[in-house]
Amino acid sequence: HEKYSPFLGLMDATTEKFVAARSSTVDSTAAMRGCGLANLTWVGVDKEELRQRLLMPEYLRLAMRDCIKRKDATAIPDHLLLPGGGVADMAPLAPMVVFINPKSGGRHGPVLKERLQQLMSDEQVFDLTEVKPHEFVRYGLACLEKVAAEGDECAKECRARLRIMVAGGDGTVGWVLGCLGELNKDETSHIPPVGVIPLGTGNDLSRSFGWGGSFPFAWRSAVKRTLHRASMGPVARLDSWKILVSMPSGEVVDPPYSLKASEENELDQGLEAGVDAPPVAKTYEGVFYNYLSIGMDAQVAYGFHHLRNTKPYLAQGPISNKLIYSGFSCTQGWFCTPCVSDPGLRGLRNILKIHIKKVNCSQWEEIAVPRNVRSVVALNLQSYGSGSHPWGNLKPDYLEKRGFVEAHSDDGLIEIFAFKHGWHASFVMTELISAKHIAQAAAVRFELRGGDWKDAFLQMDGEPWKQPMNPEYSTFVEIKKVPFQSLMINGA
Questions:
Q1: Whole-Å CA distances, 322 to 301, 327, 412, 443
Q2: Rounded to an integer, what distance in angstroms lies between the CA atom of residue 206 and that of residue 36?
Q3: 440, 333, 318: which is closest to 378 by C-alpha?
C-alpha cells in the first residue's frame, strides 16, 4: 500500500543524500538531519522512562491481543481482567500502539519491528501483514472500550490517551487513517491521533506534519527519540476528500485498492450531468489525503506501477526506481510528444471539463481548462512529489487578485493546478516557478469524454489506474470533503 511519487525519477534526491551510515557522532548527526525526522536533538531519552510512558498494563494488552486473534471484541478471558477493575493510576501517560509495514524501508523493516517491540511490548506493535488496521479498530479498540464500560478506570484512561504511530509510507498511513475514520460513525468515540515513522518513497504526509522525508541511517537512536516526541507532540487536523467515479456501465476498469465499488451513484444533484450522463452508470468511491491527478503524470506512474508488479526484480531500490521512472517519463511523451502523435490530442482540454463549488457556496461554476496542459492535480497537502510545494508560497496581492486564500491542509479547500509537460513540471518541482494555478475549491467535478481518446490515466495518493472513456457518454470524477477531519500528531 505504498505511495508512488509522481515525480520519483526527477526530484527526490533525499534518499540518496547519504549512501552509508557513518560511525562518528558528527556524521551520524548529519545523516539524521539530511534524511528526515527533523528537529531531533541529542538530549538523551531514557529507555525505561520511555517504556513506562508508553506501556499499557499487561492484562489490557493480552485482552486486546486475544480479541483481535479471535475477531471478537467480547472474547475476553476472565483471568485477564483485574478483580474490581484497574486503577487509573496504572494507566501510562501516553499509551501507544505502532503499525509497521515490514515491506517498507528495505532491509530496515524487520529490524525496526524488533526495536519497537523492545521499546514497548510485542502486543503493542502490529505487523500489517498479520493484523489489519480495521481489525485493530473493530476488535482491539472495541475490547478496550468494553473493559472501560465495565468500570475499569485504567482501561478508560488508556483509551482516552491512546496514540498511534505508523511505520510505513503515505499509502500505509492513509490506510490506517481510513480505518480509524470508522470511529466517526459513533460520535462519542475518541479518535486516536496518528504520527509517522517514514519508510516509504514520497512520504509527503510525513513531511507535512514534521516527521521528515525518509528513514535515518542512525535509526536505532532516532526511533527512541521519535516515540518520545510522538508521546508529547501537539495534535493537528487533516482534511480528507471523498472521490466518486461514475462511468458508463459495461466499461472494464481495474481500480486501485483504495477505490471500492458502490451500489449508489451519489453525484451532486445540484449540477446536472445532462445528455452526456450514461443511462446506466457504474460507480466507485474512495478517500484520499494528498492528491488526485489526471493526465500524463498518472500515465507514467501507471507504467511504472505495472512494471513493479510484473517484474519486481527490476525495481529493488531507490536508484533503480528513479532510472526506470525517468525512462517511462521519456517514452510516454511526458517530456516530448512523439512526432507520430497529434499534439492536439495530448492536451487535456480536448477531453476534460472542470466544475467547482467555492466555499460557502451552493452553486457550481465551470472553470476553463488552460490550453496545452497535460496534467491536472487536485492537491490537499503542501508537500507533493517527495517534498515539493508546487502551489507555491503565493504573495498576498496575488491571492487577493485571484480570490485565493493561503493554502493549509485543514482549511476545507483543495488546490487545483496544472503542468504543461515534463519540463514545466521539472521546474515547478524544483520550485523555480509555480504550477499553473486553476482554482481553490470546496468541491470539484471532473468530466471526461472520449472521442479520439480511448483511455485516460488517473492516480490517487500514488495509486494509478487506467480509466476507459466512452465516445458517447461522459465519465464523472467528483471530489467532496469528508465531514470529519483526521487527527495527526505534529512532530515538528
A1: 12, 9, 34, 34
A2: 9
A3: 440
